[in-house]
Structures are given as C-alpha cells and as structure tokens.
Design a protein that fits this description.
Elements: E1 12-13, H1 17-24, H2 29-52, E2 73-77, E3 87-91, H3 100-120, E4 132-136, E5 145-147, E6 152-154, H4 169-182, H5 191-213, E7 223-224, E8 239-240, E9 249-250, E10 254-255, H6 271-274, H7 280-293, H8 301-310, H9 320-335, H10 339-350
Parallel strand pairs: 2-4, 4-6
Antiparallel strand pairs: 1-5, 2-3, 5-6, 7-8, 9-10
Helix pairs in contact: 1-2, 3-4, 3-5, 4-5, 5-7, 7-10, 8-9, 9-10
Length: about 350
C-alpha cells in the first residue's frame, strides 16, 4: 500500500474518453464542438498534473481550530473559464444562494463527507480533515467532472447529451472517492488495477447516493449518473452496477460497453486499458454481494470493500483476483464464516473471478 506520503494523484473523469471521442466525430457541431473542447480541456489538465505533481500528495491542513468531524467546504465559480479554482462563491456554514449548481456541489461534498464519517469513521478524503474544494461552471459546455488530485471540478454539460454534472450526487461521491483511493491504496490507473480504481469510486458513489436517500440495497437503482443524460438520449445513466452494459443504447452515444463477467473482459489500449469499461465486473460483484446481504449496503458489503481499500494489503497493481481474495479475507475477519463471507465468495464466483 502507498500512504499519504507516497501517493501520486491521477486525473480522473466521470465520462470516459471513448464516449467523448465518439461525440467529437459526430456531424452535428452542437454535439461534436463541446465534446472536442472537453477532450482538449481533459488533455490539458492531464498534462498539467504530470508536469506539476511531485510524488506524494501535498498535505492540506484544515482551518485552525476546525472540528475533525465537520466538513470544510469551499465552492468556487470558474465562470466558464478553465482557470482554477475561480472565484469563491460559498464557504462552510454560509447560506444557500440563488445558483442551484453551487448549492448542489456544496450539498454533495457534505453528503460524501457524512457517509465516510458516519459509516467508516473517516475524517474527510485523507482521514485528516482535508478541506473539500470544488469549482463549478468550468469551461464552455464542458462535458465532464473530475478530481485533479486536489479538488473537484464540474462542467455544466452541453445541454444536448449531458446536463449539469452536479445533478447526480453519486457523480460527486465517485470523484471524491478517487481522492480516498489516492490517499490509501493508490491503485495504478491502468488495466485491472485502474478498473478497480474506477469501480471503487462507483461503489462508494452509489453508497453515498443510497445513504442520502435512505435506501436499502433492494430499493436502490444501482445506476451511476442517473439524471445526467439529456432527454434526447436513449439511456438512464452512465453505468449500471445491477446490469452492466444496459445503461444506454443510443444512436449518438452508442451502446454501453461494460461487461458483467470475466468471460467478456474487454482487452483494449484505449481508456487506459479499459478502466471505465471493465469496472463493470467488480461493480457487478459488489451489487451481487450487497443485494444478497440485504439491508443498507454501506453497512456490511461496503464495510468489507472499505476494509480492503484502507487495510494496507492491496497492491498498487492489484488484479481483480487479488482484490476479490482480500474481500473474502476481510469478510471472514470481520464477520466470521457466516452469511457475509458466503455472499462475498458467491458474488465473485458469479462474475467469474477466482479468489486465490
């Protein structure tokens, strides 16, 4: 495991590059223009991270005298530029304003902080009270949201394919969880370890939404980014943990490429070796374990996954089988040889991942 002192943040976006690539080739400039600009923004930010990031996450202290069990949120407005962080428009404890995007970002940061604190006793992203900063209204029609190793950034979407990226709280939780992974297991962002990185963000993003809505595992929709797609799109979300590969099937976006089982694992050099595609496999395993256990998914299945993420045994280059094996071990250590262990073992069997 790589801890805070050795973690190196990567640039992580909620919309995969292969989706934007497809949109950028569309003949309609209302679709291709925003997608091209979004890809250019992402390339710039990715390069900026490589050039300016030294190994080791820079520690950011919470305000003097701040309580560790309270969030410290600051929202900035980029005013449709690419300048970060932008102009401060809301800070911790201030009242909601008239900008719904600002208010949703503020609430989503708080919901993420609350789930990690209440369910797992974690004090912010780094477990040391890291302030939560976010910038809204980034770029012109920017079709993405990202964690850049230091803060959250949200685009407004193009209004044709994607709506405002602060709408789904699980998108906010997903991106902030990349920060948790950065400060704990620091999974390499390529191939199976990268897909695990993405899956963990989907898992905890979904749990944050379920916690916010008070939903049990059976009540949850298990969709990532529901409400993000514009009305013209034939689809419900970016991804489905319940049924990977079914989130959308659209003339413009194409068909959701996620597999649910190892037999359908996609071997590709795109998207960092398919990190947003093959994450469907561990996503589905978590869904199967959580629904088999029932109740609130963050309490047992989520606890097991959190134990593995933060336990110190997960290698940076872990494969699916490595992660699965550690979840079985964690379930046994925390709950014994009962139903929890059996649910976790069966979930991985069902998606075709063998535990070692």
């Amino acid at each position: 495991m790589t801890t805070n002192g050795g973690s190196q943040p990567v640039f992580c976006t909620i919309v995969p590059p292969h989706v934007l690539d497809r949109l950028a080739r569309n003949e309609d400039p209302a679709l291709s223009g925003p997608a091209r600009r979004s890809l250019e923004h992402d390339a710039y930010q990715r390069t900026k991270r490589r050039l300016t990031t030294v190994i080791g996450a820079t520690p950011v202290a919470p305000p003097a005298g701040a309580a560790a069990d309270q969030p410290h949120r600051t929202i900035y407005d980029a005013r449709h530029t690419q300048d970060l962080p932008g102009t401060k428009v809301r800070e911790e404890g201030s009242e909601p304003g008239t900008d719904a995007t600002v208010n949703r970002a503020y609430a989503g940061l708080g919901a993420t902080f609350e789930l990690y604190l209440t369910a797992y006793g974690r004090h912010s992203i780094d477990d040391s009270g890291l302030p939560l900063d976010a910038t809204v209204h980034f770029g012109e029609g920017y079709d993405n949201a990202f964690w850049n190793g230091e803060q959250m950034v949200f685009g407004d979407g193009d209004g044709e394919i994607f709506l405002d990226f602060t709408i789904p709280v699980d998108v906010i939780g997903h991106e902030l969880t990349h920060g948790v992974t950065q400060h704990t297991a620091n999974l390499e962002y390529y191939g199976q370890s990268g897909a695990l990185n993405e899956s963990l963000s989907d898992v905890f993003g979904s749990l944050i939404k379920q916690y916010t809505l008070g939903q049990t595992a059976t009540e949850a929709d298990w969709l990532i980014g529901a409400g993000l797609l514009a009305p013209r799109v034939t689809g419900t979300a970016l991804r489905s943990m319940k049924a990977p590969g079914t989130a959308y099937d659209d003339d413009v976006l194409g068909k959701d490429p996620q597999p649910a089982k190892m037999a359908d694992y996609v071997r590709t050099g795109r998207d960092n070796g398919g990190v947003h595609i093959n994450s469907g496999i561990p996503n589905h395993a978590f869904y199967l374990a959580a629904t088999a256990l029932g109740g609130y998914a963050w309490e047992k299945a989520g606890q097991v996954w959190y134990d593995v993420l933060t336990g110190g045994g997960l290698r940076e280059d872990a494969l699916f089988a490595d992660f699965a094996t550690l979840t079985v071990k964690a379930a046994r250590e925390r709950y014994g040889a009962g139903g929890e262990l059996q649910a976790v073992q069966k979930a991985w069997e069902q998606v075709g991942v063998r535990t070692l």
